[in-house]
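Action item from last week, closing it out:
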Amino acid sequence: MRSKSYLHRSRHLYRETSRICNCFDTCTMFREEIKVIPLAESQIEAAGAAMARAFFDDAIMAYMIPDEEERRRLAPWHFSAFIRYGYLFGEVYTTSGNPDGTAVWFRPGESELTTERIHRSGLDRASEVLGAAPWARFNTVCDYVERLHPKEVPEPHWYLPLLGVAPGLQGQGAGSALLRPILDRADKAGLPAFLWTAKARNVPFYQRHGFEVLTHGFEPTSSIPFWTMRRRGDGNCEDRLTG
């Protein structure tokens, strides 16, 4: 039987740990700090491979490439091409060391993918590399949701088309760290930010970083759910998460 003094010390330690952790759902006091840096061109392929792992079970990827072996083979090219587009024409951040987490941002007024930029990034080869049918399925979902984008955020804003963390780094604060550089800049400039997600569990994560749901619906052909989200640019968004 445990002594009363042992129980007293345990309760005291629990109270102190809770106080130091500031009552977060997940204590982060013992985590190693995640450092975020701009992605280097030499890291694009490795980042694409990490995003393929991060999004392997994503509804859009599964709809695009239903066969798991084909998805495992083709998804790294898909993400590498899009990250290359972001590297050339936007801003891309990754985790220091291995690029196991990636955030692609488009600057205000530059969120539309143009024909010239698609060619320069290599995305114009998507139909050839991925197959015409998979690429068409992907665009069916994205085009349906993207039509809401200019209506819901007509003013200048930052756009986050991709944020992902490879499975081995998930739950360690990498996603939050990857958001921080641009959200800080957006707040200083008084600019909103926009994103959309097809995964329900991502919604509370983004809400904890100040994003609010604008539209929740389903793409009619695939029945894939989506949430469009906007973060105010008035500098008053309260982030309630450090992980």
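Closing note: The chain has two domains: 1-29, 31-231.
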